[in-house]
Write a structure and sequence with these properties.
The chain has 15 helices and 20 strands. The protein is globular and about 65 Å long. The longest helix is centred in the C-terminal third of the chain and has 20 residues. The chain has a seven-stranded mixed beta sheet, with helices on both faces. A five-stranded antiparallel beta sheet has the order 16-20-19-18-17, with helices on one face. The chain is an alpha/beta fold. It has three domains: 156 residues, Alpha-D-Glucose-1,6-Bisphosphate, subunit A, domain 3 (Alpha-D-Glucose-1,6-Bisphosphate, Chain A, domain 3); 216 residues, Alpha-D-Glucose-1,6-Bisphosphate, Chain A, domain 3; 85 residues, TATA-Binding Protein, CATH 3.30.310. The structure holds magnesium ion. Magnesium ion binds next to loops. Magnesium ion (MG) binds next to loops.
């Protein structure tokens, strides 16, 4: 039973006591606060908000609450129904709406849902706006408009086909080249909206599609996070069917992972690396990912003259900000999130698929051969649980000063880039834990580095 309020939205489990879960009352409170923020940003303007949702079971219930509340606050609604996160973002841009709400708990299991809040550019609210929504949600003193001023639903449409057409129209997407290759592709979309959208995109690209878990019933066939331990079925099908590759997306289709022809994972971290390699071949420019993402992106960027890599704090909103600052041509997050600003500043698995297949169509190699062209890194993700009285900030400051002779980045926790490997220590905002991410040239080395820092932190705690 959980309700997590953060600047990027509100996320919680369905049912139970209000204020402690994502109950109808909580949905109404946060939707009202969001509508007030957008109205305050646009004084005197008639506001239009796009609403979309993934296929999870509570989606229709939450959608009704969100839509009804927006109408009650005097806001007009464009409801795109079952739609991906990137599709809903594109609908905001395409319809020149004033904002958007995506109803999805992303990779979280079936009992979860969430509201992701967008601005008029179809991007996540920034820190200040997110905080404003959180504080407005605690206020009860606000008058809803009277009968002549309530909103109306101005459009109900399926936006997915439009989004696919927008992706296929990108200059770096070569539909004909991909069609010629007649790729055989297995798709696992964990029975959410990706099960409709990804096969439709692939068929436009002339692929033979083998769909598993592609009925958008919201009954997730496995834990929806696209990690190897959740993806044993697709590995098997890719191998037995002799497919060229497998494609896995999360329930709201902003994370993308590939399976190689031998059934092994291409590894989520390398989705962005491969797409970036393709984009940089054609467009000179910079790249961005977050501090916890693989060094492989920085290495691949360095292969291209005049191109440089920059790291952002974890979180899509931070990555987008850094991409704008550095004029990046491609960026994203190591968890399979590809952001291609040519279309929009949001993680978009459809863009990732179309760019990747164009790239792959131009290479005469298998997925596993392609994987070998990239520097091999192995990541280890750990956490250390502390007692609540321990001052996590102090621990991080101690580590930072101890390693001040190394390359240290402290924009988000402490990241230390050693010559051969790196460690990233981050504190959680909700629990007394430190996350310890390491990456090295072998798994054993990554795990040893993590162990070293875990014992160092335990030592500091004792001091
Ligand atoms: Mg997601």
């Amino acid at each position: 039973m959980t309700l997590i309020k953060s600047i990027s939205g509100i996320r919680g489990t369905i049912g139970g006591a209000q204020g402690k879960n994502l109950t109808p009352i909580d949905v109404v409170k946060f939707t009202t606060a969001y509508a007030r923020l957008i109205k305050d940003k646009n004084p005197g303007k008639r506001i239009t908000i796009v609403v979309g949702r993934d296929a999870r079971i509570s989606g229709s219930m939450v959608d009704s609450l969100v839509e009804g509340t927006l109408l009650g606050t005097g806001v007009d609604v464009i409801n795109v129904g079952m739609c991906t996160t990137p599709g809903t973002e594109m609908a905001v841009i395409t319809h020149k709406a004033d904002g958007g709400i995506i109803i999805t708990a992303s990779h979280n299991p079936r009992q979860w849902n969430a509201l992701k809040l967008l601005n008029e550019r179809g991007e996540f609210l920034d820190d200040a706006e997110g905080k404003q929504v959180l504080s407005m949600a605690e206020e009860s003193e606000w008058d809803y408009p009277t009968i002549d001023n309530i909103g109306k639903v101005i459009l109900r449409e399926d936006f997915n086909a439009t989004h696919i057409a927008q992706v296929l129209a990108l200059e770096l997407v070569d539909v004909e080249a991909v069609r010629k290759r007649k790729f055989k592709v297995v798709v696992d979309a964990v029975n959410s909206i990706g099960g409709v959208v990804i096969p439709a995109l692939l068929r436009e690209l002339g692929c033979e599609v083998i769909a598993i878990n592609c009925d958008p019933t919201g009954e997730f066939a496995h834990n929806p996070e696209p990690l190897p331990e959740n993806l044993t079925d697709i590995s098997e099908v890719v191998r037995t069917e002799g497919a060229d590759l497998g494609i896995v997306v999360d329930p709201d289709v902003d994370r993308l992972a590939f399976v190689m022809e031998n059934g092994e994972m291409f590894v989520e971290e390398y989705t962005l690396v491969a797409v970036a390699d393709y984009v940089l071949r054609h467009t000179k420019g910079n790249t961005v990912s977050n501090l916890s993402s693989s060094r492989a992106l920085s290495d691949v960027t360095a292969r291209y003259e005049g191109c440089s890599y920059a790291a952002a704090a974890v979180g899509e909103v931070n990555v987008v900000k850094k991409m704008k600052e550095t004029g990046a041509v491609i960026g994203g997050e190591g968890n399979g999130g590809v952001i291609y600003p040519e279309l929009h500043y949001g993680r978009d698995a459809l863009v990732g698929v179309a760019l990747f297949l164009t790239y792959f169509a131009g290479l005469d190699m298998t997925m596993s051969e392609l994987r070998k062209t990239f520097p091999a890194y192995y990541a280890s993700k750990n956490k250390i649980e502390l007692t609540p009285e321990i001052d996590v900030d102090k621990i991080l400051a101690t580590i930072k000063s101890r390693y001040s002779g190394e390359r240290v980045n402290d924009i988000d926790g402490v990241k230390i880039d050693f010559e051969e490997n790196w460690v990233h220590l981050r504190k959680s905002n909700t629990e007394p834990i430190i996350r310890i991410y390491t990456e090295a040239k072998t798994m054993a080395e990554a795990e040893a580095l993590a162990k070293r820092f875990i014992s160092e932190i335990e030592q500091i705690c004792k001091e």
